[in-house]
């Protein structure tokens, strides 16, 4: 079995995959046995993370060391990366495969400074290239809303970074005295009849419209392309986008699995 861990600034997503060949998978969730989402806490120790992960695996009857043969990590949080490395070595007895400079991914990073590209964006590109080819755009609804662009030649050629839904709402609530936090759900109409519905409409339909505008401008430069939605809020916002063709919530984990397969022997 393989543990794939994607550390974001807000949440960490963990996937447990079987030992089948990821290059034979037709979807991102093929071979995915279970998955968990936890808050990203920079202060957790390796032992605390091991307790959390061991508990998740224990519910499945899976033993931490005996049945898990590999760990793959993408992380945009350096402190968490170091903690996960230490946990993996101590509790799994293996060296993790971490997306970082020097790792083999199978996707060329054709931007001005490849070292500054986030590991999750590389994983998205690897997973998208394997499942859909190119040109492809992956729209990731996370702490930030990002667009990752893969060319017809399978190169990561850049993208877009915009504020995410939740941090935009946090800024709205913190800077406006009369507005309060609301549950982020689909409103009844675009024209809100209450303040709560107005905020919900602005968040969901507003971000869907922003993504559509960005994707259309990308397509003007790139040409016809496949557009995939992913990330924690993709199931909420992507259905209202006119340009997102498919939602693949596990594409980052699938990319991690593919990278692990390319580097496990090393």
From TrEMBL:
Compartments (UniProt record): Cytoplasm
Cofactor note: A monovalent cation. Ammonium or potassium.
Cofactor requirements of the protein: K(+); NH4(+)
Pfam families assigned: Pan_kinase
Active site: 120
Positions with a binding annotation for K(+): 140
Catalytic reactions of this protein: (R)-pantothenate + ATP = (R)-4'-phosphopantothenate + ADP + H(+)
Similarity comment text for this entry: Belongs to the type III pantothenate kinase family.
PANTHER family reported for this sequence: TYPE III PANTOTHENATE KINASE
Protein task: Catalyzes the phosphorylation of pantothenate (Pan), the first step in CoA biosynthesis.
UniProt name for this protein: Type III pantothenate kinase
Species per Swiss-Prot/TrEMBL record: Actinomarinicola tropica
Lineage of origin: Bacteria, Bacillati, Actinomycetota, Acidimicrobiia, Acidimicrobiales
């Amino acid at each position: 079995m393989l543990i794939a861990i994607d550390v974001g600034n807000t949440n960490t997503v963990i996937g447990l995959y079987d030992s089948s060949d990821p290059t034979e998978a037709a979807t991102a969730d093929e071979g995915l046995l279970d998955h968990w989402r936890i808050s990203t806490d920079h202060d957790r120790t390796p032992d605390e993370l091991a307790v959390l992960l061991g508990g998740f695996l224990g519910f499945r009857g899976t033993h931490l060391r005996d049945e898990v043969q590999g760990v793959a990590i993408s992380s945009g949080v350096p402190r968490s990366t170091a903690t996960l490395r230490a946990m993996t070595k101590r509790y799994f007895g293996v060296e993790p495969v971490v997306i970082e400079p020097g790792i083999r991914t199978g996707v060329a990073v054709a931007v001005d400074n490849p070292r500054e590209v986030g590991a999750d964006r590389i994983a998205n590109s690897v997973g998208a290239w394997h499942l859909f080819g190119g040109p492809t755009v992956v729209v990731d609804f996370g702490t930030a809303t990002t667009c990752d662009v893969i060319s017809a030649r399978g190169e990561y050629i850049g993208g877009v970074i915009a504020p995410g839904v939740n941090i935009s709402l946090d800024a709205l609530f913190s800077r406006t005295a009369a507005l309060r936090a609301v549950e982020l759900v689909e409103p009844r109409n675009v024209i809100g009849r209450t303040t709560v519905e107005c905020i919900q409409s602005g968040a969901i339909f507003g971000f869907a419209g922003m993504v559509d505008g960005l994707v259309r401008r990308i397509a003007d430069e790139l040409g016809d392309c496949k557009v995939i939605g992913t990330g924690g809020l993709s199931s909420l916002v992507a259905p209202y986008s006119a340009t997102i063709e498919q939602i693949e919530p596990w594409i980052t984990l699938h990319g991690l699995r593919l990278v692990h397969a390319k580097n496990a022997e090393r």
